[in-house]
Protein: FAD-binding monooxygenase
Amino acid sequence: MKTVLISGGGIAGPALAFWLRRFGFAPTVVEIAPGPRPGGQTVDLRGVSRVVAERMGLMPAVGERQLHERGLAYVKADGRQAAAMPAELLDGAGPVAEIEILRGDLAEILADATSEVEYLYGDSVTELTQDPSGVDVTFASGTRRRFDLVIGADGVHSRVRRLAFGPEEQFVHHLGGYTSYFTVEAPEDLEHWMKIHTAPGGRWVGLRPDRDPRFAKALLSFRSPLLTYDRRDVEAQKRLVRSRFEGLGWHTAHILNGLDASDDFYFDTISRVEVPEWSRGRVALVGDAGYCGSPMAGHGTALSLVGAYVLAGELAAAQGDHVRAFPAYQTRMQAYVEQRMELPPGGIKMAMPMSAFGIAYRDFVLRVMTSRLLAGVLAKSAVAKPDAIDLPDYRARVR
Ligand SMILES: Cc1cc2nc3c(=O)[nH]c(=O)nc-3n(C[C@H](O)[C@H](O)[C@H](O)COP(=O)(O)OP(=O)(O)OC[C@H]3O[C@@H](n4cnc5c(N)ncnc54)[C@H](O)[C@@H]3O)c2cc1C
Structure:
């Protein structure tokens, strides 16, 4: 049985472990955090990612934890609505999709679905040495083990990518912003909407419904060139975020009150990841580690679930021969990845304007696009884009 080490127990890692085990491999997942990471906002399952989730048998659990957001509304400092995109307007193809679930809930469902897999929590890979028959791995804990293959599913700042492909700067492109997510108590007026207040300086103060109505998922995002900070120092990151938002209107004070107490705080750059070739010998990448359009593009969860399925499926179809399977995985995924990494029109500049005029202009454009006159055109343009991938049923081939 071929042994596969997967670095990263987020979304792509457990999904890959699920399929590899199903197809007769022996996966091990190493995750730097002490357990499955909670947190994150709503992510969506649409198109082929839903097909993959169905094939994994996850939909009953997803259905139980599904959220029903009414849409996205931009609000002013006093809470009045400036513009809105109701979910039904784009029939689930807009920023709020038909099947929405909290990222933390999906991570938990995936952990449950892979309870038979070996997980090494609180550890990470520090060294990789490949030779023609396998990969020697050294872990931070000091353990050394040998695997047939190693997969980097360790996110935007992938260590496996750094060790096997080269420095992060070659592959990660900063789009000019940072984002943070955490849970706070819900204010009364959210009414199942995702609400965002945009303040001058390219700052977003947002709240989205939680599954538990007592809480809401806060987001604080801001435009900025690259900053230097310690990725492990959560308290310093919280201070940095606070300093950018103090004094703003709407629910900012309430959100900042919840910031210090939050135990699921997540902070990262808004970045794209582009790696020309997703494998080097016996090492390959899946999910954000290999391809990521940033939270501005969305689709990170979908790309992870589909990428994990295709990678495992191609390895199974090639009887574990990575020399054939890794390029086949990339060929099958490439067009879909490029399609789903596309940023919305205007990118970060349009979504997070720097000036009051820019904010008013963005809201005006959204009001026009969602007006009775143009809503039909908008809906048509959003719906007519099927996923650019032909998804084989590897289950049938491998049986
Ligand atoms: C806590 C959290 C919250 C998030 N919230 C959102 C959100 O609200 N909206 C959104 O669009 N995207 C969010 N993301 C990103 C989103 O999950 C990904 O874009 C997408 O699901 C792709 O998944 P992934 O498994 O490739 O990467 P990720 O979900 O980022 O998972 C990578 C995993 O690798 C682990 N890891 C990192 N370095 C190492 C290492 N050296 N060794 C071992 N393990 C390592 C991380 O702890 C993490 O669990 C979040 C990610 C995390 C970790």
User: Anything to note?
Assistant: The chain has 13 helices and 19 strands. The mean pLDDT is 93. The two ends are 16 Å apart (CA to CA).
